Amino acid sequence: MRFRRLALFALIAATLAPAAPAAAARATAVPSVFAVAGDHAPGTPLRYDRVMVRRYGSASAKKVLVLVPGTLAGAADFSLVGPYLAAHVPGLQVWAEMRREGALEDNSMLLEGLHNQATVQQVFDYYLGWSVNPSISPHYQPLDSTKFAFADGWGLAVAMNDLHAVILKARAGGRHTVVLGGHSLGGSEASIYPAWDFGGHAGYEDIAGIVAIDGLALRPGAGISTAPQARAELTKLKGSKSGPWSGLLSPLPAWSTGAFAEVGALAALKAPHAPSVAQSSHLIPPLLRPPFPATNAGQLGYAYDTVASKPSNGLALIDVHSGHLATSGAVRDWVNSGPTPIQNVARAFSTEPLGPVDWYYPTRLSIDVQAADLLTETAAAHVLGLRLSHADQVNVPLYAIQTSLGVAGNAVANGARAYKRISRIPSVKIVDRSKSYGHLDPLLAAPGNNAFLQTVIPWLERIRVR
Q1: Rounded-to-integer distance, Cα 344 and Cα 20, Å
Q2: In the chain, how many domains are there?
């Protein structure tokens, strides 16, 4: 019998992760994975009131970098930079959080594929092939969204309380220096947390610095600020055909974002030069389908590369600068020519458990983050139950890197400067790669070409252990 959803948590400690890439050879230690009990979310079954964490580096290291994934993202987004940072910053361990909805995923066949107990075709058929061939059995059973209406409440308050529990655990055992970071929406969470009120206790008192990887609060004009706006968003959420969840491949179901991303990455990892299993099935969405027959690696590169299938397909959240399809051949392979080799995308996006994609990402979280963007208790914040009363007191240093996603309005860089103006932040380090990096490049670029690693390492080294 295949392991299902909650088996991710029940059997997690016994599961080994894939090896780190050769480019990060010094960071090859198998990470530890553990659960952290969160606050009880109203209406939620108690078994979901916890999150999972993937830890890299020595458990005895006194400085902890806690990283939060972005929209539709999971802990494995940090599976390349996490071990590299732990290996190259003295006395640092890195914790990558998987939000509570990770418990809803069925990663059973992905794990079998990773451990060579199932073929790429079998993995594809289990998660996706059955939708056109109902005779495939067993196959993936998507959640019945009508049974998860309580996830409408999995917004920023739940995420902050869960993150607070992770940070308190990181600070336990004599560790008092915790730096909080995140990518994309996770960067917004990392910048919101210091301003959050935890029953009279300010979030900034728990941390020693903020790392914003192409995501930050205080984006001019980007937020929800009025009570009618907030109520309208909640009404729209209640009436959504997708239930509580958001995806990236509408009108396909929300969970398909994770299935296409992780199965495609596994295919490129295990059979990179074989004809694309997804392309040959005709299931892959047209905007992600190469114009020529492609290999599994070519298919993955075409889907993720900034230039290959973009710039106007609306998928900037998965941009990398990787390379291009070969210019000839009956089945075209991928040619690396950018900072992010397609092999890095394949490794990171096939990592399990605590994978790279949030298959059941709660829409409410995005609504609340938009309302928290101003870091003030607006009328919308009151409607949504957001507790933002400490922004002017935040007194820890801030690091921010911006890619092409934030180039409109210089969003991340300007947000960092605005945060410093309204707070007591002593210093801000801004790295602008908006002309040369896609949204995922800071997480996936090879270390020798990775502007994030090259600039955040000396910044982290200056954070003193308390």
Answers
A1: 9
A2: 2
Q: Report the alpha-carbon distance of residue 372 to residue 393 in Å, rounded.
A: 16
Same domain, 281 and 368: no
The pLDDT value recorded for residue 353 is: 93
Three-state secondary-structure class, residue 147: helix
Rounded to 5 degrees, what angle do the CA atoms 402, 90, 14 make?
A: 90
Query: Looking at the structure, do residues 14 and 71 belong to the same domain, yes or no?
Result: yes
**Cα atoms found within 13 Å of the Cα of residue 191, Cβ hemisphere only:** 37
Judge if 156 and 71 occupy the same domain: yes
The alpha carbons of the chain give a radius of gyration, in whole angstroms, of 21
Would you state the structure tokens that stand for residue 337, as one six-digit string?
């020519």
The residue from 327, 349, 371 where one domain ends is 349
Burial of 274 (0-12, 13-18, 19+ CB in 10 A): middle
Residues ≥6 apart with Cβ < 8 Å to 304: 318, 319, 320, 322, 342, 345, 440
Q: Is 432 helix (H, G, I), strand (E, B) or coil?
A: strand
Q: Which two tokens stand for residue 195?
A: 């301003």
Kindly state the greatest CA–CA separation across the chain.
65
| Spatial distance between the Cα atoms of 80 and 65, rounded to a whole number of angstroms | 14
Give me 105's structure tokens. Answer: 């995923």
Task: Read off the pTM.
Answer: 0.93
The pLDDT of residue 437 is above 80: yes
Nearest CA to 81 out of 460, 464, 462 is that of 460
Are the CB atoms for 66 and 178 separated by under 8 Å? Answer: yes
| Domain coverage including residue 289 | 108-140+256-349
151: tokens are: 């996830």
The residue behind tokens 């890195």 is 94
In a domain, 401, yes or no: yes
Same domain, 339 and 456: no
- Do 67 and 205 sit in the same domain of this protein? yes
Q: Any idea which residue has 């780190």 for tokens?
A: 20
pLDDT by residue (tens digit) across 414-425?
A: 999 999 999 999
Q: Encoding tokens for residue 411?
A: 């969003």
The encoded tokens of residue 189 equal 């969470």
CA angle 318, 207, 72 (to 5 degrees): 20
The pLDDT tens digits for 82-132 are: 999 999 999 999 999 999 999 999 999 999 999 999 999 999 999 999 999
Lowest mean pLDDT among 63-67, 104-108, 311-315, 375-379: 311-315
